[in-house]
Amino acid sequence: MALPNRVKKLLDDAEQLNDYKDCSAYFYKWLHNEFSKQPVRNLINARAEFIDRLLIKLFHDTGLAQYPEIALIAIGGYGRGELHPYSDIDFLLLVQSPPDEQLKSNLENFVTLLWDLNLEIGHSVQTHEQVLEQKKQDVHFTTSLLESRLICGNHIEFERLKSHIVETPIWRSDEFFIAKVDEQKVRHRKCHGTAYNLEPNIKENPGGLRDLQTIFWVAKKHFHAETLEELISHGYLTHEEYQELLECIENLWNIRFALHLAAGRNENRLLFDHQPNAAELLGFGAEGKASVERMMKRLFRIMSRVREMNQMLLSYFEQSILPDQGEQAVIPLDRNFERVGNKIRVKNPSVFFRREQLFVLFEHIADNPEITSIDPNTIRTMRQVRRRLLGDLQDYAGCRDAFLRLLKHPNGMGRAFTLMHKHGLIAAYLPQWRNIFGQMQFDLFHAYTVDEHTHKLVNNIYHYFDKTQPSDFPICSEIVTRMDKPELLYLAAIFHDIAKGRGGDHSELGAVDALAFCKMHGFTTSDSRLVAWLVKSHLLMSVTAQRKDINDPEVINEFASQVKNERQLDYLYCLTVADIRATNDNLWNDWKNTLLRELYLHAQRALRLGLENPMDMRDQIRDKKRQAKQRLINKGFEEEFIDLSWSRFKANYFTAFSEQQISWQSEHLLKSKDLSQASVIVSEKPLHGGTQVFVYSPYEATLFAKLVSVIGSKKAQIQHAQVMTTKDGYVVFSFVILEVNGNPVASTRANSIRKGIEAVLEDPKKKIRLKKNRSQRFKDFNIKPKIIVRPHARNDRNLIEIQAIDIPGLLTKIAEVFQANSLHIHAARITTVGERAEDFFVVSDDNYQALSEEHKAELHRDLMKKLNAESE
């Protein structure tokens, strides 16, 4: 692709820095305009040519051309002649000896001009000896040298360097191969081993450009191949596979090019913020989410193909480059399959004409933990069979039988399921799975596509059964040991989100799909109904635990009545824990673990008492008081004094807290011996999954806003909060707080938070500064606050429900609006679910009456204005 004559002329005529800037601006505008008109390969080659001409011109303008011994050499992607709009420009200035002062000055002028042009450069000035020494230490540098290209200067010095690179016995083929494979493994681990992140890195993710480049680097080092096409003659690629690789490269280049244009900088992460613009540039339309979904599904399909071919080719290379590992014992598995080292191999490719043998292969993987991967010839055969399938594999009776055997196999849902997902067999079996492959999720909770989230969920359940490792979830591990049909739990996991992206309630639609699957596969009516109920109700437990008061007997009784029996409770609990943990690596924490565990135990007790004998709130309060009192008496407190202190609190205090929390709070209050004084307690150790903050103080209308501001200023996150008044005009505030990383607050920080709250109680006029450090992720979601003002059970109060992005200082902003509207807060429940806050407040007006219609409208307007302003 030749540069436009206009660009060449501007570059040739440039003399001042501004001339070069004008030329660059014109060139980038041309790149942008041409993106929709011609192949991306032409454009990335054009940018490399433009940079070549720019460097050559500056090389002469800064006097470097007068030094005949210097060679200006492009390395890395620039060396390949491939530069995306804002890609790094990596080059080496090769000198015969260390530069003198004059040459140093010229070199500095050259580099400074490039920086002034806002170019991202990676450069070094080195002698031959220094290059070879760095090559010994650094495989990354060695890789970049493989793609070196002379831009201008001494070609003899460049050829000498090239011969040294080839002839010097540093990084033999086997060492280089091992280093690049290890490098790839580390890179994949950083991406959590999946290509299906909702904000994927086009270069670094499994299946990204780096995986393609790794194939090329190894081929270039070992086979001295200059193009991937040469791998056909070496017998590693078929012509069809080569064409497929070219198509994958072209697609990834297109998306990366569009991403650079959308971001206006060197960006390789396809962030939510850039996805709509990139999708429009690529021709997927300007329909927002729909356009992004089309683009991302295309991207994930490409990445899946790249990752599979990368694995296949690296396995072939391993057999050639590491021959010692190729001579491994062959162990027959049956008449059709054998194990070679840690790989499974099909003896005769024609065996897959009997489609059920595809699943028999994975049965052998389940039977043999030594098998960790699939032989490259077998991968190639599976790919060919998969593409020639007519209809779904579940249409074959033999495949249904084999799939059920895997589902019931103790190890079937472990590595075998992962490899089936990775190699497209689940999608080939279940038509619904094809619909969720690469399906985006536009919310603040999920980090993965629907199919990858489901795969991780199945994997989490599988780990409940692992007896070789200590369990992080002992209740789940204990439940599955007595579970009569674990396959029903796995089926519920597979179908729980399978209807996402279709419109409508995905739980309802998924339950219908699950019933149809069970009928086709011969499950009993009762088992089919259990699977369908689990799919339909898979959000019930998490919603109840995180959004309702699980210390309220009415909440527990209602939940237990929906669950109906202990068997369904066991299945639902195991599914819920695995589901939340598979949603986002940062979403799970001890607080959520504690909530779910307590809900499970409360519901289990309610079911054992019998739904016809619901737990009574008075019975619960009596039980809690008795247990908490005994703890306090054991510590030396007098029963009369305990009863006197508790007489201040209303019944809701004793339902809101566990006996452990009540005794902990009471112990500190009783020690003060003066219950008229404000008291602040912050637990130094985690209690019920988080750090507990308890404040007891005379009622003051602005106090809630001040407390949440103090906690926010200490960079702690409020996960849960409750507010309740006492019989004698005092107020109790209870917060569960965590660090930003989801861990309980460190003991030293807990002390700092306590002192900060005490300072505000002592000096009500004290101002608290809250830094605005809004997360980038909030910016990527246009989610408007939702505010509902409802009647309350008491006629003199209102219930306010607020759903909003959990921006820093959210509670402070809400409290400021309440204060401006002269509201009294009688109770509050604050819950953070992911990065969304769901808050409930019981309020009255300044005269302790319910809000008038006019007041409700004014409050709604003020809250919307405040929260919308903060979320922008």
From TrEMBL:
Residue ranges of the region described as Uridylyltransferase: 1-332
Enzyme Commission code: 2.7.7.59, 3.1.4.-
Keywords: Hydrolase, Magnesium, Multifunctional enzyme, Nucleotidyltransferase, Repeat, Transferase
Region forming the signal peptide: none
Protein name: Bifunctional uridylyltransferase/uridylyl-removing enzyme
HD domain sequence ranges: 443-572
Protein purpose: Modifies, by uridylylation and deuridylylation, the PII regulatory proteins (GlnB and homologs), in response to the nitrogen status of the cell that GlnD senses through the glutamine level. Under low glutamine levels, catalyzes the conversion of the PII proteins and UTP to PII-UMP and PPi, while under higher glutamine levels, GlnD hydrolyzes PII-UMP to PII and UMP (deuridylylation). Thus, controls uridylylation state and activity of the PII proteins, and plays an important role in the regulation of nitrogen metabolism.
InterPro entries referenced in this protein's UniProt entry, alphabetically: ACT-like_dom_sf, ACT_dom, HD/PDEase_dom, HD_domain, NT_sf, PII_UdlTrfase/GS_AdlTrfase, Polymerase_NTP_transf_dom, UTase/UR
Record note on domains: Has four distinct domains: an N-terminal nucleotidyltransferase (NT) domain responsible for UTase activity, a central HD domain that encodes UR activity, and two C-terminal ACT domains that seem to have a role in glutamine sensing.
Gene3D superfamilies per UniProt: cca-adding enzyme, domain 2 (1.10.3090.10), Nucleotidyltransferases domain 2 (1.20.120.330)
Catalytic reaction equation(s): [protein-PII]-uridylyl-L-tyrosine + H2O = [protein-PII]-L-tyrosine + UMP + H(+); [protein-PII]-L-tyrosine + UTP = [protein-PII]-uridylyl-L-tyrosine + diphosphate; guanosine 3',5'-bis(diphosphate) + H2O = GDP + diphosphate + H(+)
Cofactors required: Mg(2+)
HAMAP family assigned to the protein according to its UniProt record, in alphabetical order: PII_uridylyl_transf
Family: Belongs to the GlnD family.
Region Uridylyl-removing, annotated ranges: 333-691
CDD domains: ACT_ACR-UUR-like_2, ACT_UUR-like_1, HDc, NT_GlnE_GlnD_like
Domain called ACT: residue spans: 692-773, 799-872
